[in-house]
Prior knowledge:
By secondary structure, the protein is of the alpha/beta class.
Amino acid sequence: MSILEIKDLSVSYLGDDYKVRAVDHVSLNIEEGESLGIVGESGSGKSTLMLGILRLLNERTSKTEGEALFRGNDLISMNKKELAKVRWSEISVVFQKAMNVFSPVHTIETFLSDIYKVHRPNAKRQEIRKELTDLLAMVNLPKQVLRMYPHELSGGMLQRTSIAMSLMFRPKILVLDEATTALDVITQNQILSEILEIEEKLHLTRVLITHDMSVVANFCKKIAVFYAGRLMEVGYVEDVLVHPRHPYTRDLVKSYPTFSEDGTGTVISIPGTMIDLKKAYTGCPYANRCDRATEQCRTDRPMEDQMDEHWSYYCHNPLQGGETDESR
Ligand SMILES: Nc1ncnc2c1ncn2[C@@H]1O[C@H](COP(=O)(O)OP(=O)(O)OP(=O)(O)O)[C@@H](O)[C@H]1O
Ligand SMILES: [Mg+2]
């Protein structure tokens, strides 16, 4: 069953003399209990997609169109009061810069208690302390952390604390936007493994936004590949990463050393640059960099094609499978 149905969603940033099409008519279903990794080059609209859905963008300088149905209710058209009930308690987000989330002049306990009280104003001090201690335990932090100030915590501890905070109201969906990217690989893997355990306990649906394909391969069931604000391909990790249909997925996979077929670890970068999202264009945004581009790719927008009900791609000239080693 879908828990979040994104339908024809577009998000633009508006300036005095420009419009950036950061998310461009994206449709995507997120199933309950699923873990979805969202990947794509920097600037492909991954963060904007989630910020637009949760309406965390400045309404004067951005425009969000389309629908995002959370359990059938559209977040985009929902009134602010209803939306406030969904954010945090139903869908919560952890961003990369945990340090910026906390107040430098308050202890972790004061900071977290204040948030707790916003949603549970009648809660007693003892109850809050017990709840916060349990939350910290969930991410393997001792209760002493409550008495500490943010600057006394290591990067990993801070990130764990912000994950604990995001779980405070037992959300249904947890969004991690590059939440562990700044940490060393060992700490990142530990935290992600802990999250896997927590999500089983809490029946969480997880959306993990990352640059790191190996993180998606290890910690997600499904993958959605974004490019220039568009969804290029989505499906189970073992299908999409092993037999990509979209040439962009293949090129992205090749640009990761751990996935290179000959095992030499050579990074093959994708030639060319992403199109300017301020400029209007026709066809596929990847056409100028794609070795399979045809005339049609430059003129017609590719529509969705499906391999099966879980696997879709948007390409006029898709790979047919077994072509991942095609030389560029
Ligand atoms: N406030 C803003 N005003 C104008 N353009 C913006 C703004 N924020 C983002 N953009 C542009 O929107 C596009 C999508 O950005 P976004 O941050 O969503 O990408 P991303 O995939 O999350 O990238 P990264 O991997 O670097 O986090 C980019 O072209 C970016 O320059
Ligand atoms: Mg981002």
